[in-house]
Specification:
Protein name: Immunity MXAN-0049 protein domain-containing protein
Number of domains: 2
Number of helices: 5
Strand order of the largest sheet: 3-4-7-8-6-5
Pfam families: Imm11
Shape: globular
Organism: Marinigracilibium pacificum
Number of strands: 15
Length: about 220
């Protein structure tokens, strides 16, 4: 059975977001140690106790306050930065390997309640033997060669083997279960279900685009 999923991404409409990105620093300034911690967090197989910088985020000059915010230094992590309004919509959904972290956003002399939804790789979600992957040219995604990967470990080895300028992409993914919101192994893309899409659109939330995905999902 084929499943319908989408990708959620920051809006690029300047009338909505004001600037791209909307956040590029913290109130006290980012430290090299913080950036090093982000790298360690991304490689970890468990949720971190704390993510640096979330307690003192600031909007860039000219940026607008939206329900979904684009943050430069958090973009490398698998996650989304959302308002309390948006969190309330997501709370009722099936989130695979995700955890909310409290965020203090400083803007115009006020502190706003936001959340960073961080995802671990949903390793147990993918039925590897029944999925199809491709090695693609990073500059020409139409140039691709199909490969089969039988496990998460094999996926990691293949990522290390590919030549410079090439990438392992998901083509057809067989899911063991059907979450509403998740991130696949070795990817920063956040996928959402049809139900999630409808709920977000009905809530009139701002700051993001929901797009079709080239990846085919089935159960």
């Amino acid at each position: 059975m084929e499943l319908k999923y989408y990708e959620i991404e920051p809006s690029v409409d300047l009338d909505i977001v004001g600037t791209i990105p909307q956040i590029s620093n913290t109130k006290n300034g980012l430290k090299k140690a913080d950036l090093d911690t982000y790298k360690k967090i991304k490689k970890a197989k468990s949720f971190p106790e704390k993510i640096p910088g979330l307690d003192n985020l600031i909007l860039d000059t000219g940026a607008k306050l939206t329900d979904f915010l684009d943050c430069t230094f958090l973009a490398g992590l698998r996650g989304i930065l959302v308002s309390l309004r948006m969190k309330k919509v997501l709370d009722g959904l099936k989130i695979s390997a995700g955890k909310f972290y409290d965020v203090n956003l400083h803007y115009n002399g006020k502190v706003y309640e936001y959340y960073f939804l961080y995802f671990l790789e949903s390793i147990d979600l993918v039925n590897y033997p029944k999925s199809i992957f491709v090695v693609a040219d990073y500059l020409d995604m139409d140039e691709e060669n199909e490969i089969k990967l039988n496990s998460y470990e094999m996926h990691g080895l293949e990522n290390k083997k590919v030549e410079a300028g090439y990438i392992v992409n998901n083509k057809v993914i067989s899911l063991k279960f059907m979450p509403d919101l998740f991130a696949l192994p070795y990817s920063n893309i956040i996928y959402l279900s049809e139900v999630t899409k409808k709920n977000l659109e009905a809530a009139n939330l701002t700051g993001f685009d929901i797009n079709s995905t080239k990846t085919v999902f089935y159960k």
